[in-house]
Amino acid sequence: MFYSAINILIGKLSTHLANPPTQGIIGATGSRMPGVAGVGGADGRRNSTRMTSHHPTIGSLLRSLRARNGWTLKEMSERCGIPLSTLSKVEHDRLTLTYDKLLQLSQRLNIRMSELFAEQDEAAEPAVTARRSIGRIEDAVRVKTPNYDYYYLCPELRRKRMIPVLTRVRANSIREFGDLVRHSGEEYIHVLEGRIEVHTEFYDPIVLGPGESVYIDSNMGHAYTAAEGCDEALLLGVCSSADEQLLESLMTLHGDEPPAPVTPRISAPAPGKAKPRERRPRASGAARKANPAK
User: 158 and 107: one domain?
Assistant: First the structure.
């Protein structure tokens, strides 16, 4: 009897939240209060919008809970034992959950019922991770490809959203370079030494010198070559992507052989410091086409 009453109450509450009344509010005397709602009048429509826009539904609360924990619908379904299709309908306010199902959610997810219905504070500031890394050439991971020498800085930080890399450009022409390359994300390239020619899929080539830079969509075909009259060039690049495994993705494009220590060409390592590790690509035609960015 108690559960039946609770289920009826939850059902009515969900219907009310998903479909709030649009008619005017009746005052104590029985007359409709002006300027609140009603079919006609801009004031009524504005107030009706204000009244309904802040009312959460069970679906929106579940969606917020899932977002706070970074779960997919499938993951949440597996955790709470409620079918994925049911959760999807609830999140889109096409279905509600009984008290029994809400209790099951609370118990399976090991959270209190009050937490289940807690809205996320949109004004909350992101957590401070306090991560820091000092980039030194002797600590970098070196990757040698037919066109570039890469020095990946700050390699000890995992799941970086930005990848800093020093790149020595050795290809002297687009013919020597080969096919343009593409990868996810965006990148910023700043010329430190020498001059480069920037080749992109949708723009004419452009020559950049020391102190000049370019910012591009990395999904667009691109290549960097040493400009005419310049044997080599040194670049500072920053690759970024929403993919937290960006560094691992870039490294897999170079080949599968483990890094090997080599002497860096950019600057001599400090006494007692380990030399940069080198990662050599497999000897195949695909390695030339699949270098990550440059």
Answer: no
